[in-house]
Write a structure and sequence with these properties.
It contains 10 helices and 10 strands. It is an alpha+beta fold and about 290 residues long. The strands form 5 sheets. Strands 1-4 form a two-stranded antiparallel ribbon. A two-stranded antiparallel sheet has the order 2-3. A two-stranded antiparallel ribbon has the order 5-8. Strand 9 and strand 10 form a beta hairpin.
Length: about 290
């Protein structure tokens, strides 16, 4: 009886040894050796996992940095250029800096500019409301005001203004992660360069209807009159589908288009007041 037990123990030991040997060699063959720089770079990244870089999270971006071996085509919008410099130092390369961007609301259809024609009393979701109707102002392109962008923002840089009914983007908190851009079903939020001294000029309208129809629902809608395009000395403005668009890479911030726009659809941010000379005095007014 003791002999049978001894044979059983020996057999199990041999089988266990064989399986352990097989597992060891299989592990060695398929073992993935990660570059230690991945962990270093991941620790440098902010850990927001917001997806603004185009990857699923900070770990995936760190792996991409190490795989590429440079910072040319990769960027963490939350960390900005300071993080890029640190990552470049780990990789032993020169940092590739990018212009800082900010989310911009391309709609000025407030309760004053685009008065309500109906009242929405459904689910508080822009995506849901967009599937049902044009909006309370009847503008099928304008902001629905349900706050999907506000809820998507991980950095508390957006608030919903009860007076205007529009979201307000805090330029000091915005990281340009793009979460609000993806959340908006009407594509009225755009990432644009912050500009020198945070100065920006853009058309705050995405309405593609003809001028008369656009103006029916919103007093500050772009009517596609082309006046801004004709006066721009830098060819930064294009007109398509009755809608003007300012290319922020070409725009030199001369502001000529702002005063030329008959509907005040072009906004200028962080500029001093315009000076208008009269016969007796100089009046300061907003564009």
């Amino acid at each position: 009886m003791n002999t049978y037990i001894l044979y059983s123990i020996i057999s199990l030991t041999v089988i266990a040894f064989l399986f352990a040997t097989i597992i060891y060699f299989v592990e060695q063959k398929f073992k993935v050796i990660e570059d230690p720089k991945i962990d270093v770079i991941q620790d440098l990244l902010p850990g927001a996992n917001c997806g603004g870089c185009g990857y699923s999270g900070c770990r995936a971006l760190a792996e991409a940095f190490v795989k590429n071996g440079n910072t040319e085509s990769l960027f963490c919008p939350v960390g900005g250029n300071s993080i890029t410099k640190s990552i470049a130092s780990v990789l032993g390369v020169e940092a590739t800096e990018k212009k800082q961007q900010i989310a911009v609301l391309r709609c000025n259809g407030s309760y004053t500019n685009a008065p309500k024609k109906v009242t929405y009393d459904g689910i508080n979701s822009c995506v849901f409301a967009n599937s049902l109707f044009a909006g309370e102002s009847a503008c099928q392109f304008g902001c629905l005001g349900c706050g999907d962008c506000f809820r998507a923002c991980l950095f508390e840089s957006i608030i919903m203004d009860s007076i205007s009914g529009l979201p307000i983007i805090n330029e000091n908190k915005c990281t340009s992660c793009g979460a609000c851009v993806k959340a908006c079903p009407r594509n009225i939020i755009e990432l644009r360069d912050k500009g020198p001294k945070n100065k920006r000029i853009f058309v705050s309208c995405v309405n593609k209807e003809k001028g008369v129809l656009a103006k029916i629902n919103c007093n500050v809608a772009c009517i596609g009159c082309s006046k801004c395009q004709k006066i721009c000395p830098h060819e930064a403005i294009s007109i398509e589908n009755f809608l003007a668009y300012i290319d922020f890479e070409k725009c030199k911030l001369c502001r000529k288009c702002v005063t030329e726009c008959p509907t005040n659809a072009i906004l200028e941010i962080n500029f001093p007041l315009h000076k208008i000379k009269t016969s007796n005095t100089v009046d300061l007014i907003n564009a």
